[in-house]
């Protein structure tokens, strides 16, 4: 048979139609087709498409097969949902990266729930954790190695930080993400440019409502810009482990005006830092733990005056600092105070009863009860 005839798609399709009209099994029909026209005229996949089209009653030889191709996002929602239910965590991550259209289709009905999402960053590696799923991005010669469970995949010319942030961003931007806690850790070896890129990425998100935020290795200069990008609506706990790079003990006062700071119920700022924080900026909290530059008698007087004269929500508050004279601090609250075995004393205001604990390395306030709840002894 001449090549010019075999190059004519209409002729080739008419031969397939001939086989389909005989209503024989497809394997036998394809064998007959190859014997008549040749083994290299059409592969089995294309033959199968046209055979079943003709077999089903559509005998149009001029139809363009490309019109029949549908993308995954064009599938009926019910079928697409069934496919999603069969995918594991890694496959779902890959699916989100296929295209913006597909990511939107997935987001329309898929609710993603994570108890915690965390990101740990070092100079040569990044680790993403979604609840109990770990993905590691390791710098290697010529690119990056991505590891999930027992599967390693090399990404030529890939940057470990870029890949980790891309995957994290796809998840954090999901319209139906439900997330309880978010935590990030910066290694001391992480370059300044990388730190800046991560925080800039945070600002590009529309953050979900999270209850708990943790940042290990944060610099004092990064606190305001980082907290400022969070969704303040549901924030309850802020925990910062500071890595100090200067002798700057005063935290940017703009931090205290942030809605995230005002709405939090518990704040912890510890680590390699020694801060100076006015007590009034902590009184709205139910709990706090702060590393102070110094805890002086003057600061104790500031605390006492605030407890005596202003409303507060404090249930438990701890200051970490070297206290050279705990007895002097204790006498601010009780002139007769003498250092005892428990280093504690009771202090009552018009509204609340407190236990004050003062030692050489910490000062703590514990609310015991409000005055109205204390039974009157006759």
TrEMBL record:
The molecule here is called F-box domain-containing protein
**By its UniProt entry, which InterPro entries does this protein fall under?**
DUF38/FTH_CAE_spp, F-box-like_dom_sf, F-box_dom, FB224, Mos1_HTH
PANTHER family xref list: DUF38 DOMAIN-CONTAINING PROTEIN-RELATED (PTHR23015:SF4), UNCHARACTERIZED C.ELEGANS PROTEIN (PTHR23015)
Instruction: Write down the superkingdom of origin.
Output: Eukaryota
Primary gene name: fbxa-153
Which Pfam families does this UniProt record tie to the protein?
F-box, FTH, HTH_48
Q: Where is the F-box domain?
A: 69-121
> What PROSITE patterns does the annotation carry?
FBOX (PS50181)
């Amino acid at each position: 048979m001449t090549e010019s005839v075999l190059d004519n798609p209409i002729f080739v399709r008419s031969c397939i139609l001939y086989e389909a009209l005989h209503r024989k099994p497809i394997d036998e029909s394809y064998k007959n087709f190859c014997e008549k026209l040749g083994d290299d005229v059409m592969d089995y996949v294309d033959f199968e498409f046209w055979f079943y089209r003709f077999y089903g009653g559509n005998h149009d030889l001029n139809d363009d097969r490309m019109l029949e191709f549908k993308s995954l996002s064009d599938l009926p929602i019910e079928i697409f949902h069934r496919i999603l239910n069969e995918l594991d965590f890694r496959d779902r991550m890959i699916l989100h990266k296929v295209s913006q259209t597909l990511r939107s289709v997935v987001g329309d009905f898929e609710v993603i729930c994570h108890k915690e999402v965390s990101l740990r960053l070092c100079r040569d590696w990044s680790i993403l954790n979604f609840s109990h799923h770990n993905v590691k991005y390791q710098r290697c010669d010529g690119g990056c190695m991505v590891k999930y469970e027992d599967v390693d995949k090399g990404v030529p010319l890939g940057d470990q930080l870029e890949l980790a942030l891309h995957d994290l961003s796809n998840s954090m931007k999901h319209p139906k993400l439900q997330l309880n806690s978010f935590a990030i850790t910066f290694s001391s070896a992480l370059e300044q440019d990388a730190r800046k890129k991560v925080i800039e990425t945070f600002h590009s998100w529309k953050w979900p409502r999270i209850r708990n935020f943790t940042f290990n290795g944060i610099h004092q200069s990064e606190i305001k810009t980082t907290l400022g990008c969070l969704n303040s609506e549901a924030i309850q706990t802020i925990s910062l482990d500071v890595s100090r790079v200067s002798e700057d003990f005063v935290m940017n006062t703009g931090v205290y005006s942030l809605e995230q700071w005002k709405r939090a119920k518990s704040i912890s700022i510890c680590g390699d830092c020694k801060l100076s924080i006015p007590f009034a900026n902590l009184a709205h909290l139910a709990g706090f733990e702060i590393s102070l530059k110094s805890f002086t008698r003057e600061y104790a007087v500031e605390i006492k005056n605030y407890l005596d004269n202003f409303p507060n929500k404090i249930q438990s508050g701890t200051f970490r600092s070297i206290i050279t004279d705990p007895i002097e601090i204790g006498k601010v609250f009780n002139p007769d105070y003498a250092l005892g075995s428990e280093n504690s004393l009771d202090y009552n205001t018009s509204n609340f009863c407190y236990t004050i604990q003062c030692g050489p390395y910490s000062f703590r306030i514990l609310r015991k009860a409000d005055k109205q709840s204390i039974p009157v002894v006759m």
